[in-house]
Specification:
The complex is a heterodimer of chains A (199) and B (612).
Chain A: E1 7-14, H1 19-32, E2 37-42, E3 51-58, E4 70-75, H2 78-83, E5 88-97, H3 104-107, H4 116-126, E6 129-133, H5 135-142, H6 148-158, H7 166-176, H8 179-197
Parallel strand pairs in A: 1-4, 4-5, 5-6
Antiparallel strand pairs in A: 1-3, 2-3
Chain B: E1 13-17, H1 18-29, E2 33-36, H2 44-52, E3 59-62, H3 66-78, E4 83-88, H4 89-94, H5 96-105, E5 111-117, H6 131-137, E6 141-142, H7 147-164, E7 168-173, H8 174-177, E8 179-184, H9 201-204, H10 208-230, E9 235-238, E10 243-248, H11 251-260, E11 267-271, E12 273-275, H12 279-287, E13 291-295, H13 301-312, E14 318-320, H14 335-345, H15 374-386, E15 391-393, H16 418-430, E16 434-439, H17 440-456, E17 461-467, E18 484-485, E19 488-489, H18 496-502, E20 507-511, H19 516-527, E21 532-538, H20 542-547, E22 555-559, H21 568-573, E23 578-581, E24 584-587, E25 605-609
Parallel strand pairs in B: 2-3, 2-4, 4-5, 5-7, 6-7, 10-11, 10-13, 13-14, 15-16, 16-17, 17-21, 20-21
Antiparallel strand pairs in B: 1-8, 6-12, 9-11, 18-19, 22-25, 23-24
Helix pairs in contact in B: 1-2, 1-7, 3-5, 10-12, 11-14, 15-19, 16-17
The chains are: A alpha/beta (199), B alpha/beta (612).
Chain lengths: 199, 612
């Protein structure tokens, strides 16, 4: 399939943020549009408050992204976005939540609190395009903090860098979630979409 | 609405996890009995079967360990049932004894063993390559690389197993178990009755006189299988030229992507049916090549067999694999690793990887015991009573995270159940006090034998059974001791205290670890005693309590204004609900589980009603 766009999206977040759910829903939406999609995720001990990483690849066979390969880095948490920078291809695009969840080492005062502005400058120095949105706050605004993951997905679609329409994503949410939860997630999706469109 | 995996018609395409696709493949084969012991990266397979079991056309059990799981499955296959047994790679070590002999006596109903390997040790203590087990036992091995193949190979493994009356290994790796991809469904068959047991002692009772012949028959079956492997749709050749690449497992996907994104061209032999190898197909492939590169993660299994085939056919082809172009014998491959090796293989230079670097000194985010975890409370009390004096023997479960400071409650660990037996050995040889920790599920898995052995041999050991009433680590699967499973009450509960007493332990106590005073008193009492002592620390996992037992904790902890910010609570307990901001200690009410353990540490920590 020579016309299939090849795209690698690396996603990172903290256990409990819905990183894997967002990956799965995004992959289902791509598949519903007839695009050849493969996704991968790393489980194991991640659910105990650790880092959760997942990958979504279009037009490729493997489920893995190595250093320097990701066209897009999607960070569901501000510190993990920076930690995942090595996966970004030089000149790739970074979309991240601006809101940190402090690691226990920071919240307990054992590690220095990172300077978020300095981290953001570091990200901007690596990427050709960077967008930060307050994803969790948008989730709260939509009706549930957990829907912040879909706000980030909405912003991804709003940046026009993936071959997927917001209407296809909304259809996937309706088909896969209970109506009340789908409504909240669609609201969050639209908030993210609008935030990206305004930049 | 029926579960999508139970869709009867063929033709639909669903996005499935590799592990879900394996379930669908087994259903398309008409699987009748499923046994397992959960373990990452295999766990979603039995969990999906468990969820489907009320409406699915099969019977299912969570077995207490992999040896038992394979023996139950082997018996079911002897009774003519199409049977699947699932486990992670190290589980096959536990099940190795029945595996070796089941290959001799056979599996008339069909028996598929899922071995989920973990190159890169994402969640395992080693990265052993279980393709070698297929060779040791003499059973066929299929290795999927996509979700579609997970489904198709699981289905076809049943047919192969039944045709040859031989167990078949479906060997996956973490990336394959946890990939998601499109899967086109085939039809589900109408349920059939189990064939039934046909008496045949010469085939089913491996006394030496019979087993000698069984081995000969097994080798005959394998010879027949080589022919099948030559014609298997999972072993394919494409392209031509002096260069050849042979790939198996997930390396096939990396090879595909590396070739799509570069000018590299070569003849390609993809191997999905990897034991026995298709010798004629391989010999024909080698004959046309000057040089061949083998891509496979971990051990050079295919590579070495290729060298043997080349030697048998007198071929002068150069065969490369491990160590060539940076291909390691450890950890995982990737598209990038494969692309580099292909570049070197083609006589060029590998492209340098351009990647950003993360700043140094990023605060780490290791996995942590949850807030309200009873293991933290038990560890806290143990450290308070024993300090650094004993050797702490750990085991496999969430509680291994007690390794991290400030709890520092793991000095060594070998494998499931070893806390008791290896702890006995350390105590015996060193003469030092040993405190061993084991979880409830791990105790049933393989702790009981070690405990009765310690009693029998009069070892000096304090065992703390961290009984959180579930198999927490792998996702709250039931075990014989649980009160309730996600599907309802446990009707035949095995009581851990009675089991411990039944094994001959006379010094037994049981506490709620959230009660610091009682736990400390019990530990103090055992500290001054000798022999085998068992303290059962029983308190449900807070995640399990909330999600399954529906227990609500109405209060949260807070730190009142009189606190002098000495910081001891944070430094010794390391509960993730505690925060230190501008030198002031506080409790994050959203993160607090309401366990109230910390109230027993300090008079400045108090309880307040949880706000809605």
């Amino acid at each position: 399939m020579p016309d299939t766009p090849k795209l690698r999206i690396f996603m990172t977040g903290v256990g409990g943020q819905g990183t894997l759910t967002a990956t799965q829903l995004l992959a289902k939406a791509f598949l519903s549009e007839g695009l050849p999609v493969t996704a991968g995720e790393i489980h194991g001990m991640a659910q105990r408050g650790g880092v959760v990483e997942s990958m979504l690849l279009l037009g490729l066979s493997s489920p893995k992204i190595d250093h320097g390969e990701a066209d897009i880095l999607l960070g569901f948490e501000a510190i993990e976005t920076v930690r995942a920078l090595p996966y970004l291809k030089p000149g790739g695009v970074v979309l991240s939540s601006s809101e940190p969840i402090w690691p226990v080492s920071v919240s307990m005062g054992k590690a220095a609190t990172p300077d978020l502005d300095a981290l953001r400058a570091k990200v901007e120095s690596c990427a050709s395009r960077t967008l930060y949105i307050p994803a969790q706050s948008m989730g709260v605004q939509a009706g549930a903090a957990q829907s912040g993951n879909l706000a980030l997905v909405g912003a991804l679609l709003g940046m026009n860098i993936v071959p997927l329409s917001a209407s296809a994503m909304e259809r996937t949410l309706k088909e896969n979630l209970k109506p009340a939860i789908a409504d909240i997630n669609i609201k969050a999706l639209r908030l993210g979409l609008d935030a990206a469109s305004q930049t | 609405m029926a579960h999508p995996l139970l869709e009867k018609q063929a033709g639909q395409t669903h996005l499935l996890l590799g592990n879900e696709a394996i379930v669908r493949g087994a259903l398309e084969a008409g699987v009748q009995i499923v046994t397992c012991y959960p373990g990452t990266p295999s766990s979603e397979v039995p969990d999906a079967f468990y969820q489907l079991s009320p409406e699915g056309p099969f019977e299912f059990e969570y077995s207490i360990n992999e040896k038992v799981a394979l023996e139950v499955a082997g018996g079911a296959a002897l009774a003519g049932a199409k049977t699947m047994v699932t486990m992670k790679h190290v589980g096959v070590n536990v099940a190795a004894d029945p595996l070796m002999t089941l290959a001799y006596i056979g599996a008339p109903g069909g028996l598929v063993l899922l071995s989920a390997d973990d190159p890169g040790c994402h969640s395992s203590q080693n990265e052993q390559d279980n393709r070698l087990y297929a060779r040791l036992a003499g059973i066929p091995c299929l290795e999927p690389a996509t979700a579609q193949e997970c489904k198709d190979m699981a289905r076809d493994a049943f047919a192969l197993s039944r045709e040859l009356s031989l167990p078949v290994m479906l060997r996956t790796t973490t990336r394959v178990n946890h990939l998601r991809g499109p899967v086109e469904f085939g039809p589900l068959p109408e349920p059939e009755p189990v064939q039934g047991f046909q008496r045949n002692p010469q085939q089913f009772v491996p006394i030496p006189a019979f087993s000698r012949l069984m081995h000969v028959h097994l080798l005959e079956k394998l010879e027949k299988l080589v022919g099948k492997s030559n014609n298997s749709p999972y072993n394919t050749v494409r392209g031509d030229g002096p260069l050849g690449v042979v790939a198996s497992g997930i390396s096939r996907a990396y090879l595909h992507d590396a070739m799509v994104e570069s000018d590299f061209d070569a003849a390609v032999l993809e191997l999905g049916a990897t034991h026995p190898l298709p010798k004629e197909l391989i010999a024909d492939f080698l004959k046309g090549r000057e040089r061949v590169l083998v891509l496979e993660e971990l051990e050079p299994v295919v590579e070495n067999e290729l060298r043997a085939i080349a030697q048998q056919h007198g071929l002068r082809v150069e065969i490369q694999g491990k160590g060539f172009g940076g291909l390691p014998q450890y950890w995982e491959y990737s598209t990038q690793i494969v692309a580099k090796a292909l570049a070197v293989f083609a006589g060029g230079e590998p492209a340098a990887v351009c990647a950003c670097e993360a700043p140094e000194n990023m605060p780490p985010r290791p996995p942590n015991l949850c807030s309200g975890c009873p293991h933290r409370a038990a560890y806290f009390a143990t450290r308070r009573v024993f300090g650094d004096e004993p050797v702490y023997s750990s085991d496999i479960g969430c509680y291994t995270l007690g390794l991290l400071p400030p709890l520092s409650m793991a000095d060594f660990l070998v494998c499931m159940g070893s806390s008791i037996s290896a702890g006995s050995g350390v105590a015996w040889a060193s003469g030092r006090p040993v405190v061993a920790f084991i979880g409830d599920s791990t105790f049933f898995h393989s702790g009981m034998t070690g405990l009765v052995n310690a009693v029998h041999n009069d070892r000096n050991l304090l065992l703390v059974i961290l009984d959180n009433r579930t198999t927490a680590m792998t996702g709250h699967q039931p075990h014989p001791g649980v009160d309730q499973t996600v599907l309802g009450d446990n009707l035949h509960k095995a009581d851990i205290e009675q089991v411990v007493r039944g094994l001959g332990v006379t010094q037994v106590d049981k506490v709620r670890p959230m009660n610091l005073k009682a736990t400390t008193a019990a530990l103090e009492k055992f500290k001054d005693a000798s022999g085998v002592r068992v303290l059962i620390a029983e308190e449900p996992c807070p995640l399990f309590a909330r999600r399954v037992l529906k227990i609500k904790k109405p209060k949260v902890a807070y730190i009142d204004e009189s606190c002098d910010n000495c910081g001891e609570c944070v430094a010794t307990l390391a509960c993730p609900a505690f925060v230190v901001e501008n030198g002031k200690t506080a409790v994050n009410a959203l993160a607090c589980s309401g366990c109230m353990f910390c109230l027993q540490l300090c008079e400045h920590i108090k309880a307040a009603p949880r706000s809605a």
